[in-house]
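Hey, I'm writing a tutorial for new members on how sequence and structure tokens pair up, and I'd like a real worked example in the thread rather than a made-up one. If someone can provide the structure for the chain below, I'll link this post from the tutorial.
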Amino acid sequence: MNKKRWLGCIFGLVVFGCVAWADDLPVLAGPYLGQPPPGGDPQRFAAGIVGPERCVFNATFAPDGREFYYSVKEESGRETIMVMRRVDGQWRGPENAPFVSRHNDCDPFFSADGRRLWFISTRPQEASGAAKDWDIWYVERTTGGWTAAVNAGPPVNSPQHEYYVSLTRDGTIYFASERPGGHGSFDIYRAGWQQDHFTAPENLGPAVNSDRLEHDPYVAPDESWIIFTSVDRSGGSGAGDLYLSQRRPDGTWTAARNLGPAFNTPGYEFCANVSPDGQYFFFTRSGNLFWVAMNAVLDGRTE
């Protein structure tokens, strides 16, 4: 089991329940599972609906707000993706996402148009093969549902682990990778989209990456800033903290700034994500899902 997933979930994992809780689900109507919007202080999101029966992490809403995908860790250690859908104004589910495998699947992320959903998986490329390292995969939406999963392939995937996809509005992809040549055990990379393929991944450099472990990047749709997790970084609050860096016009990055005690604790904060309307910031804290008003995260940005 990799360090990121273990440390992030060990604090929140309790006895695993059933696959779905539809029979016990209260009536949930309105956007964001009908939850009252948070203010400037992080609040638990949908407590008792998407947890606490499991370690919950990485939550993402479809651009139209009608689907909610999130990752869970089962008691067995397997990671999988769940989905809730808004039908006739009411949220249904949760249930297993239709594209999950018997291997590990997690970290879903929608393209800006909602037609492609990215995630990571240890599934083999051949149906009969054994589990492999974490790779980036995607499915595409059709009138009949999601297609079969497709491995993103090189140059994004490598023989080492790749984690946590985030994409800009123009299709540039950000992710964490254990590939050689980085600053630490995992670094954050960027690869541009060019017609029908990704360009060679670029390391974001020492302003973002350190000799520690960096992972779980969320990049702004316009690529103006990035929030990510760094583990045991000097000056941090705990095991894993959230950091923010801004992208300058010349493509370089400002020195990463710790988001501070309003967001970081002695526990593990990871899986940064933002709602499709840009109003709310989601993250996981020690196995539980939190959300907060986005302006509270971005206030006080400095060079």
